[in-house]
């Protein structure tokens, strides 16, 4: 009988080692240790053996059972580890792959796309992007920008007042002062944002967008202004463009200029098919923005860092994003930007 036990023990050991899954291992366990299996049956038969055989046989059978149980447990552990290993290799995620992109469900609004393009040009020239509040103090919108108390833009018929001393900003220029109060020179920033004026007709909406530019340093000149705007004009309207500066007036720049870019749609005001150019109205120049050298009085309003007009100088410019987009894409009516007509929006981006 002891021989039989040894035989069963060897068979069972081989079967355990060969089991390649938890289910197969469970079958082996039932076959050799289950209630109806040979080994337990043998154990039950021990009682009928001759007394001197009972001890050694029972002991051998018990040892065999315990050894097999331990082997099964070890094998089960191995199988779990093996399975985990396999799953980890199979399910490995390559975190360096780009995520599944969502299908495009829309596109950038032409005004957003235009703003970003203009920002990119100036970022390429070394400018940073700054922002400021749309609900603005009269102080920043007018006073600190050197507007006379009688300046017509202060009128309630031109400007939205929230309180006596708070307006919806009429331009992005107040951020000039705010930016200077936040840091000493040098400053090179552009400021995109919404602005508000009490205007509503074919070419004006009460809310529109501007991009302000501000450069302050110890040696900034009008030549830098012209070169910067030339680089901008060429990036946006084409490499062949020229710019010209015409004298103008703004309360916060001195001298002030209006800046024209040479027309991209015609030669000397005449289009390729011999018509008077509708974009420049035959003048071959298109007005794109206002600009100038920072008026020394404006530096005097900056309440931090002692901006000393004897030591520093700067230029500023301000342009309408709608105007740039209309010129560039031949958009005939300003209101198309705000109608949200999908047939218009889908033509861009
Ligand atoms: N803020 C002016 C406007 O809205 C434009 C401008 C900006 C002019 C900066 C000069 C310098 O008309």
Number of helices: 12
How many DSSP-defined strands? 10
- Which ligands does the model contain, each kind named once? phenylalanine
What spatial form do the alpha-carbon principal axes imply? elongated
CATH architecture field of the largest domain? 2-Layer Sandwich
The biggest sheet amounts to:
7 strands, mixed
By oligomeric state, this entry counts as: single chain
Provide the spatial order of strands within the biggest beta sheet.
1-5-6-10-9-8-7
Alpha-carbon distance between the termini?
89 Å
Kindly give the count of domains.
2
The share of residues in helices is: 40-55%
Instruction: Summarize model confidence as the mean pLDDT.
Output: 92
Structural class: alpha+beta
CATH superfamily of the largest domain: Bira Bifunctional Protein, Domain 2
SSE blueprint and pairings:
Elements: H1 2-18, H2 22-33, H3 38-45, H4 51-90, H5 110-124, E1 128-129, E2 135-137, H6 138-141, E3 161-163, E4 166-168, H7 174-182, E5 187-196, E6 207-217, H8 222-237, E7 243-250, E8 253-262, E9 285-294, H9 296-301, E10 313-320, H10 321-329, H11 336-339, H12 342-345
Parallel strand pairs: 1-5
Antiparallel strand pairs: 2-4, 3-4, 5-6, 6-10, 7-8, 8-9, 9-10
Helix pairs in contact: 1-2, 1-4, 2-4, 3-4, 5-8, 5-10
Describe what this molecule looks like in 3D.
- The chain is of the alpha+beta class and 349 residues long.
- The chain has 2 domains: 2-90, no CATH class; 110-345, BirA Bifunctional Protein, domain 2.
- The chain is built from 12 helices and 10 strands.
- The strands form 2 sheets. It has a 7-stranded mixed sheet, sandwiched between helices. A 3-stranded antiparallel sheet has the order 2-4-3.
- Strand 3 and strand 4 form a beta hairpin.
- Helix 1 runs parallel beside helix 4 (51-90) and helix 5 (110-124) crosses helix 10.
- The longest helix has 40 residues, at 51-90.
- It is elongated and about 125 Å long.
- The mean pLDDT is 92.
- The site of phenylalanine has 11 residues, from strand 9 and strand 10.
């Amino acid at each position: 009988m002891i021989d039989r036990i040894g035989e069963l023990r060897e068979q069972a050991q081989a079967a355990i080692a060969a089991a390649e899954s938890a289910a197969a291992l469970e079958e082996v366990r039932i076959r050799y240790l289950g209630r109806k299996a040979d080994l337990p049956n043998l154990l039950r038969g021990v009682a009928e053996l001759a007394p001197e055989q009972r001890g050694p046989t029972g002991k051998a059978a018990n040892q065999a059972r315990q050894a097999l149980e331990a082997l099964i447990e070890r094998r089960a552990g191995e199988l779990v580890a093996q399975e985990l290993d396999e799953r980890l290799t199979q399910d490995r995620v390559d975190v360096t792959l780009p995520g599944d992109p969502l299908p495009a469900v829309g596109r950038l609004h032409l005004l957003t796309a235009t703003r970003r393009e203009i920002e990119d040009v100036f970022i390429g020239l070394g400018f940073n992007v700054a922002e400021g509040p749309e609900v603005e103090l009269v102080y920043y919108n007018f006073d600190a920008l050197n507007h006379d108390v009688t300046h017509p833009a202060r009128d309630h018929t031109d400007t939205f007042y929230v309180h006596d001393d708070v307006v919806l900003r009429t331009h992005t220029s107040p951020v000039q002062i705010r930016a200077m109060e936040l840091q000493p020179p040098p400053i090179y920033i552009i400021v995109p944002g919404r602005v508000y004026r009490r205007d509503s007709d074919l070419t004006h909406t009460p809310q529109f967008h501007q991009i302000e530019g501000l450069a302050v340093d110890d040696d900034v000149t009008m030549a830098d202004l012209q070169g910067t705007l030339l680089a901008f004009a060429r990036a946006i309207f084409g490499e062949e463009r020229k710019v010209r500066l015409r004298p103008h007036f703004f309360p916060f720049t001195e001298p002030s200029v209006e800046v024209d870019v040479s027309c991209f749609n015609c030669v000397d005001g005449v289009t390729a098919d011999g018509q008077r150019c509708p974009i420049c109205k035959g003048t071959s120049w298109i007005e794109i923005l206002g600009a100038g050298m920072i008026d020394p009085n404006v530096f005097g309003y900056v309440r931090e860092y002692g901006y000393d007009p004897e030591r520093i100088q700067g230029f500023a410019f301000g342009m309408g994003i709608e105007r740039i987009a209309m010129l560039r894409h031949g958009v005939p009516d300003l209101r198309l930007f705000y109608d949200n007509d999908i047939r218009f929006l889908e033509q861009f981006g």
